[in-house]
UniProtKB/TrEMBL annotation, chain A:
UniProt keyword Zinc, yes or no: no
The protein, known as: proton-translocating NAD(P)(+) transhydrogenase
EC number: 7.1.1.1
GO MF annotation terms: NADP binding; proton-translocating NAD(P)+ transhydrogenase activity
Keyword check for Cell membrane: yes
Organism: Allosphingosinicella ginsenosidimutans
Transmembrane segments: 6-28, 35-55, 61-86
Main location: membrane
Compartments, record wording: Cell inner membrane
Record-linked InterPro entries: NADP_transhyd_a_C
Length: 94, 302
């Protein structure tokens, strides 16, 4: 991919992000923040590439450390969001 | 143009699918009816992104090996799976045990991990550029990649140290009162300018001191930016740091030419920024004064 293609993808994704959350209900601010946090752990992709790359021990361990940190965030982030949403649903029923 | 080894179409399509899942996840979380399916779509997207990466960027024993099974570096692959498992256990246990009232600081703690992970990935790419396909024939890192790498590490480091302070303030380990350093705006602007100048200089000289000074200064500025912000404004700050973690992922995505990281990073970056703006408005606070720290600290109604 050349730089312009990547830049186009980036700019369009920025606009999608801009428009997608405007209508959020105030009660959902914290769950939305927490799911966004979980999604930002996409950095795990870079961490996996770094861990698997051959040629440097230092880089491999940095990659593995990053995989652990990002995984905490993935599993913790989605689990915590699910917990918050479950609570929200109970409140609605009452 | 720096060209990384051609990524096959199925990998690009899988990343695109993951990106669409994340968009729908954010959209889903905007209203109560669709929120739970939104969360599930987020999980699906992450599974696809991680699965694709594990399959395509699997560790191989011989460079250039194409045979899926025989060339697999089984030890390293097991180590990677173990790393994911360790993270999974810590993450799930923390998420289950934490009190509902401690949610904001938990999210802040999670952000700091994303920031630190971005710094680690940046440092790994700096130490081993050839493996990431960003080295030129001379062995030096491509100048364009240096800028992207420098920005990614800087934003990641700011996210990390900023989130640590936000966590300490929300968790009560640190006073929620704004800490106003004299001349803080001058210090902050000076540090930011120094970071940007050094990233610019990094293009002409990829010496380790430049890289690590950028990293160190960024850790410092993350700390300096958040200490003058009062405890009541912290939820907005956490959301803002969320946005930073997205930008850090996107910058690393530019470095690695990885569309999953670019799409998702940009999505998280811009939606996080908008969410913090919306939260500010809901709290009747001025967005700029919260983010710049302590302009309106005296009249915090909450």
């Amino acid at each position: 991919m050349d730089f312009i293609t990547i830049l186009s993808i980036f700019v369009l994704a920025c606009f999608v992000g801009y428009f997608v959350v405007w209508s959020v209900t105030p009660a959902l601010h914290t769950p939305l923040m927490s799911v966004t946090n979980a999604i930002s752990s996409v950095i795990v992709v870079g961490a996996l590439i770094a861990a698997a790359a051959a040629g440097s021990t230092g880089s491999k361990w940095l990659g593995l450390a990053a995989v652990v940190m990002a995984s905490i965030n993935i599993f913790g982030g989605f689990a915590v969001t699910a917990r918050m949403l479950a609570m929200y649903k109970k409140k609605e029923r009452r | 143009m720096h060209e990384v080894a051609h990524t096959p179409a199925w990998v690009m399509l899988a990343y695109l699918f993951a990106g669409v899942c994340f968009i729908l996840a954010l959209r889903g979380l905007s209203s109560p009816e669709s929120s739970r399916s939104g969360n599930r779509l987020g999980i699906l997207g992450m599974v696809v992104a991680v699965g694709t990466t594990l399959a395509y960027y699997r560790p191989v024993t011989a460079v250039g090996g194409t045979d899926l099974v025989s060339d697999l570096d089984a030890t390293l692959f097991a180590e990677i799976l173990a790393a994911i498992a360790i993270g999974a256990v810590i993450g799930v246990v923390t998420a289950r045990r934490i009190a509902m009232t401690a949610m904001p600081q938990l999210v802040a703690a999670f952000h700091s991990l994303v920031g630190l992970a971005a710094v680690c990935v940046g440092a790994a790419a700096y130490l081993n550029p050839a493996a990431f396909g960003i080295a030129e024939a001379s062995g030096l890192i491509h100048p364009g990649s240096r800028v992207e790498m420098g920005l990614g590490v800087a934003i990641g480091a700011i996210t990390f140290s900023g989130s640590v302070i936000a966590f300490l303030k929300l968790n009560g380990n640190m006073s929620g009162k704004p800490i106003m350093l004299p001349g803080r705006h001058v210090i902050n602007l000076g540090t930011l300018a120094a970071i940007l100048i050094l990233i610019g200089y990094f293009v002409s000289d990829e010496a380790p001191w430049v890289f690590f000074t950028v990293m160190g200064l960024s850790f410092a500025i993350g700390f300096l930016l958040i200490i003058p912000i009062g405890g009541a404004d912290m939820p907005v700050v956490v959301s803002m740091l969320n946005s930073y973690s997205g930008w850090a992922a996107a910058a690393m995505g530019f470095t690695l030419q990885n569309s999953a990281m670019i799409i998702t990073g940009a999505l998280v970056g811009s939606s996080g920024a908008i969410l913090s703006y919306i939260m500010c408005r809901a709290m009747n606070r001025n967005f700029i004064s919260v983010i710049a720290g302590g302009f309106g600290g005296g009249d915090a109604a909450a």
